[in-house]
């Protein structure tokens, strides 16, 4: 991991952080509607994992996917416009915050059914294997997904058929408002995955460098044709499940404790240790990021609404595809 | 100066109660700082401010419910001076804006003005959509199509002769007078002779059923039309019966305009003519009959149809009468009566079987024709009905 | 080739041809490989194409249906066989929330060219959980296409029609049809999805049916001829999309409608067809529309009870007489 890479990790995480903070403001002002699930606190997972993937790999994520989308390269403009429900959004305004899709970056959502994307990942990897394409399919999901049948079915199939999948479980200890220890008899998720003969490990999800290293190892393993890998990233969301959540299910002291491990802080410490932390660079970085976000908001504000006559489009394909 | 408003925390959030201010007037605040707590349906949630500044004025007191978007506080910025700002009306309590205009007064309902609905079953005519459409095309007055109680009018009913029990309503006085006059005159002036013949209708009806099976409902031929056609063709061979007694002389009519007895729903009988039936074939006879009945009921007959009958056919068989001996309408000289078709024993040689039998009668004016002509007519009518293909 | 073939063979031939000619096509489902298919439809295919093209899956309907969706999104043309429509309920989330929705949610970016085949229908005394007819239910969902091949020809043709479609297509095969025989012409031009087919012309009433009920309707029509009733019988072929044009043209001709539907009456495809006839050709009706559906009961095991519950030839004949009555 070279210095430039670490600095870039910080930049990417900061972009996600500021983007999410802006989203809070816009949602509070009713510019963004529906649901909003923030990635604040979990930035290291998306950024770290994404660094190990290449352009033609595929990514599937959950409804808490702004971080993954930004880290994957989907523009802040198109995400913001999407949340504004505008035509210029990455899903033409048809999806909203929970359904960000982008063909160019092979970003397959944005899936709102917990564990619903795991079978899709199995299928995508199956196709790659059948067509002998050396690609990795990465699937992000939360600790809540572990309870769903589809989780178990998918892991089983992935190992059985030796599919090139990177399973990334973002364990933030809560499935919406219910703590993991209240829903799982075995709370060690990596151990559960291992019972399917799936190579699994737990990762410090607050440390972007560790995530990146582990992700790279996993990708190497997968690309060598060895089958799937499971990473349980231990992380925490600093804000509520969604905007409309009084967080009655967890203690403020717990949140405070995790905030001390803020991934931005952890990364900052690393940079300071290496003598790379220079105040002037950071201010400039904040200004640049601020500008990107302001431009994204302006873009979204000016963007257009899809005409009503087009309402019934995109139910069926216009023409046969390749 | 900017406003700090009640934020939206969810698409289904309309309002929240301000529980606690965590800052006071004059305090500096920074972007992202939590400055108040609000109670929502889901519990108490902290709300944050999105800019730097100084709390200029707290607009809302604690324990107040405010809808989303309500200004809660005024925030001034470093370069501003505290100034008196006109207070904006806070939207409290009401979730939707109260309009200033008073509600329009409700119209007073006078119960005596509400017309009681007539019992639907008595007044509403049941008619299928297809029949309704056809009736509309034919300019038929739906109210004149009185079906039996509980029955529905369908397509087939629009072309049929009326075979309903006419209620004992008093018919039009004028019509009754006219009929009375004509009948009296007929009885007084015309020396009637009467002949009858039993006709085996089975071949004709069987043939008709087969013919109709190959046709759509619209093209089917009714037995009445078949009988009219048979009479017309018979008259071509026995033309003496088709005509008038006028000026003390027998006049044979060139056109065969059979007057068809049609009972009206209101009571009474009319006998409009199918004009120039000699030019028609079975199909066009059927169509003319259909059309005639329709227009009769709609009161849209032509003058010529009411005055130019050259003979009358009365078919009262559906009412259950086996044979009918009619009264000739002057100046006509004959009236054909066709009775009800019933299953009857029928002898052929040594065999006895059951056939559909109809009593055909002829009443003739003895001044114009005699029994022989009449007999010939009935005989030929019978022959024709035994070879129904010829009726086409 | 025009010789009597079974429906089962026709489906098999259709799949064989597709897998042979297009490397993107593969079959995936429970017991489709070594067992040869629960209804022997895929018998022999694994020996020909190998376990990589004919894949035996574990009992994970949700996962392997979702896998079919994912594979379709990523360039393949999978055929997912869900053993029966009864088990499709386990995959309903994938079918509705993914297959039917992805194209739309992504603003047109990702289409799902997936084919799902399922056996459907009751009548085999398999009781409540193994006798469902849910094709009308699935036809409610925008984004899906629902086919119900009745004839041997359609059993063959619809495999290719479905695979050529860029969107998810569900094919419902009534399991009692697998043994039926008919003529198969592999060279014939297939009748496209969304077109119904008039099997018998008539003037007195229109009988609309699909799947196995096509044959019950045709048999009933023969009986009705003897009674002097001339019925028109139409095979709907696809329940989504429905062929409004053919349906309305028939109604305009006969003015009387009967629909035969294997589903339960309430909220069924027969209700939908009646609603459309009402909307489009109300004034052509000379009598109320009628339907013969499955009685509203989970299907019972006892034969006499089950027989009484599902559409039968005599019920269709009786209903036709009702329809032709004077009102």
Q: What brief labels describe this structure?
A:
heterotrimer, A: 322 residues, alpha/beta, Rossmann fold, 44% helix, C: 327 residues, seven-stranded mixed sheet, five-stranded mixed sheet, 14 strands, 38% helix
Question: What is this entry, summarized?
Answer:
Chain B is of the alpha+beta class and 392 residues long.
Textual characterization of the structure:
The complex is a heterotrimer of chains A (322), B (392) and C (327). With 322 residues, chain A is α/β, with parallel strands linked by helices. Chain A has one domain: Rossmann fold (3-Layer(aba) Sandwich). Chain A has helices at 3-28, 43-50, 66-72, 76-83, 118-130, 149-160, 189-194, 208-226, 252-259, 263-273, 279-302; strands spanning 58-61, 107-110, 137-142, 165-171, 174-175, 178-179, 200-204, 229-234. In chain A, helix 1 (3-28) packs across helix 3 (66-72). The longest helix of chain A is centred in the first third of the chain and has 26 residues, at 3-28. The radius of gyration of chain A is 19 Å and the shape is globular. Chain B has 392 residues and is α+β, with helices and mostly antiparallel strands. In chain B, the strands form five sheets. In chain B, strands 9, 12, 15, 16, 17 and 18 form a six-stranded mixed sheet that branches. A four-stranded antiparallel sheet of chain B has the order 1-8-6-3, with no helix packed on it. Chain B has a four-stranded antiparallel sheet with strand order 5-4-2-7, with no helix packed on it. Chain B is rod-shaped and about 130 Å long. With 327 residues, chain C is an alpha/beta fold. Helices cover 38% and strands 22% of the residues of chain C. In chain C, the strands form three sheets. A seven-stranded mixed sheet of chain C has the order 3-2-4-5-7-6-12, sandwiched between helices. In chain C, strand 10, helix 9 (212-226) and strand 11 (231-235) form a beta-alpha-beta unit. The longest helix of chain C has 15 residues, at 7-21. Chain C is globular, with a radius of gyration of 20 Å. The N and C termini of chain C lie far apart (50 Å). Chains in contact: A-B, A-C, B-C.
């Amino acid at each position: 991991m070279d210095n430039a890479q670490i600095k870039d990790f910080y930049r990417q995480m900061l972009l996600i952080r500021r983007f999410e903070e802006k989203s809070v403001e816009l949602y509070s002002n009713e510019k963004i509607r529906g649901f909003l699930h923030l990635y604040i606190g979990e930035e290291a997972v998306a950024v770290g994992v994404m660094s190990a993937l290449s352009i033609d790999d595929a990514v599937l994520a959950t409804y808490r996917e702004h971080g993954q989308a930004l880290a994957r390269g989907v523009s802040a403009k198109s995400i913001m416009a999407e949340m504004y429900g505008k035509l210029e959004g990455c899903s033409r305004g048809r999806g909203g915050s929970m359904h960000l899709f982008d063909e160019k970056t092979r970003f397959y959502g944005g899936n709102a059914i917990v564990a619903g994307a795991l079978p899709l990942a199995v299928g995508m990897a199956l196709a790659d294997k059948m067509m002998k394409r050396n690609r990795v399919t990465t699937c992000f999901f939360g600790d809540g997904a572990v309870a769903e049948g589809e989780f178990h079915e998918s892991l089983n199939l992935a190992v059985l058929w030796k599919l090139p999948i990177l399973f990334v479980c973002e364990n933030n200890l809560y499935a919406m408002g219910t703590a993991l220890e209240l829903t799982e008899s075995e709370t060690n998720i990596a151990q559960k995955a291992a019972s399917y003969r799936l190579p699994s490990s737990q990762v410090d999800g607050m440390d972007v460098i560790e995530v990146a290293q582990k992700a790279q190892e996993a990708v190497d393993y997968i690309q060598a044709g060895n089958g799937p890998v499971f990473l349980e990233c231990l992380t925490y969301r600093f804000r509520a499940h969604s905007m409309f959540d009084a967080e009655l299910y967890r203690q403020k002291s717990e949140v405070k404790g995790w905030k001390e491990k803020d991934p931005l802080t952890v990364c900052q410490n690393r940079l300071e240790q290496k003598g790379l932390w220079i105040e002037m660079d950071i201010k400039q970085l904040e200004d640049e990021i601020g500008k990107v976000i302001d431009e994204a908001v302006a873009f979204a504000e000016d963007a257009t609404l899809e005409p009503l006559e087009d309402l019934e489009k995109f139910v069926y394909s216009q023409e046969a595809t390749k | 100066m900017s406003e700090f408003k009640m934020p939206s925390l969810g698409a289904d959030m309309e309002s929240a109660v301000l529980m606690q201010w965590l800052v006071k007037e004059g305090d500096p605040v920074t972007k992202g700082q939590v400055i108040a707590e609000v109670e929502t349906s889901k519990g108490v949630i902290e709300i944050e401010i999105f800019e730097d500044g100084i709390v200029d004025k707290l607009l809302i007191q604690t324990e107040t419910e405010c809808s989303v978007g309500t200004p809660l506080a005024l925030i001034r910025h470093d370069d501003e001076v505290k100034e008196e700002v006109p207070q904006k009306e806070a939207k409290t309590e009401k979730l939707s804006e109260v309009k200033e205009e008073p509600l329009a007064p409700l119209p007073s309902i006078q119960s005596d003005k509400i017309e009681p609905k007539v019992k639907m079953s008595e007044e509403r005519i049941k008619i299928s959509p297809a029949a309704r459409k056809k009736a509309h095309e034919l300019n038929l007055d739906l109210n004149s199509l009185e079906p039996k109680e509980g029955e529905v009018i369908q397509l087939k009913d629009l072309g049929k002769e009326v075979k309903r029990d006419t209620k004992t309503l008093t018919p039009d006085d004028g019509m009754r007078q006219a009929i009375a006059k004509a009948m009296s005159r007929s009885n007084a002036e015309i020396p009637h002779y009467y002949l009858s013949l039993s006709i085996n209708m089975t071949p004709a009806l069987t043939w008709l059923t087969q013919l109709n099976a190959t046709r759509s409902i619209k093209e089917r031929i009714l037995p009445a039309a078949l009988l009219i056609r048979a009479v017309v063709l018979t008259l071509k061979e026995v033309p003496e019966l088709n005509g008038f007694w006028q000026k003390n002389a027998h006049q044979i009519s060139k056109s065969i305009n059979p007057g068809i007895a049609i009972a009206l729903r209101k009571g009474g009988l009319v006998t409009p003519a199918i004009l120039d039936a000699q030019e028609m074939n079975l199909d066009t006879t059927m169509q003319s009959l259909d059309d005639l009945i329709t227009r009769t009921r709609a009161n849209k007959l032509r003058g010529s149809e009411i005055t130019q009958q050259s003979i009358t056919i009365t078919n009262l068989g559906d009412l259950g009468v086996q044979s009918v001996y009619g009264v000739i309408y002057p100046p006509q000289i004959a009236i054909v009566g066709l009775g009800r078709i019933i299953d009857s024993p029928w002898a052929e040689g040594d065999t006895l079987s059951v056939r559909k039998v109809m009593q055909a009668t002829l009443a003739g004016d003895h001044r114009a024709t005699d029994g022989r002509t009449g007999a010939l007519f009935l005989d030929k009518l019978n022959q024709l009905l035994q070879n129904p293909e010829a009726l086409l | 080739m025009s010789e009597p073939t079974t429906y089962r063979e026709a489906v098999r031939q259709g799949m064989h041809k597709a897998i042979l000619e297009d490397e993107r096509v593969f079959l995936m489902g429970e017991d489709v490989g070594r067992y040869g298919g629960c209804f022997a439809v895929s018998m022999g295919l694994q020996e020909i194409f190998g376990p990589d093209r004919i894949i035996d899956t574990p009992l994970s309907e949700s996962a392997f249906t979702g896998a079919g969706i994912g594979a379709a999104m990523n360039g393949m043309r999978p055929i997912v066989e869900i053993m029966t429509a009864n088990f499709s309920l386990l995959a309903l989330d994938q079918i509705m929330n993914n297959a039917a929705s992805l194209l739309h949610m992504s603003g047109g970016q990702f289409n799902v060219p997936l084919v799902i085949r399922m056996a459907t229908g009751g009548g085999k005394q398999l009781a409540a959980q193994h006798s469902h007819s849910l094709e009308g239910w699935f036809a409610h969902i925008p984004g899906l296409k629902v086919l119900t091949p009745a004839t041997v020809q359609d059993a063959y043709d619809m495999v290719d029609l479905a695979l050529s479609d860029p969107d998810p297509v569900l094919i419902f095969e009534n399991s009692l049809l697998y043994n039926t025989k008919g003529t198969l012409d592999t060279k014939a031009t297939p009748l496209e999805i969304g077109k119904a087919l008039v099997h018998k012309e008539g003037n007195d009433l229109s009988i609309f049916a699909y799947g196995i009920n096509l044959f019950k309707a045709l048999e009933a029509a023969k009986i009705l001829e003897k009674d002097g009733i001339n019925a028109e019988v139409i095979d709907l072929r696809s329940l989504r999309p429905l062929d409004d044009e053919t349906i309305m043209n028939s109604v305009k001709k006969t003015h009387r409608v009967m629909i035969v539907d294997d589903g339960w009456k309430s909220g069924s495809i027969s209700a939908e067809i009646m609603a459309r006839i009402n909307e489009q050709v109300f004034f052509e009706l000379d009598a109320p529309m009628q339907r013969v559906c499955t009685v509203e009961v989970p299907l019972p095991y006892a034969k006499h009870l089950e027989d009484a519950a599902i559409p039968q030839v005599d019920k269709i004949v009786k209903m036709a007489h009702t329809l032709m009555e004077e009102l």
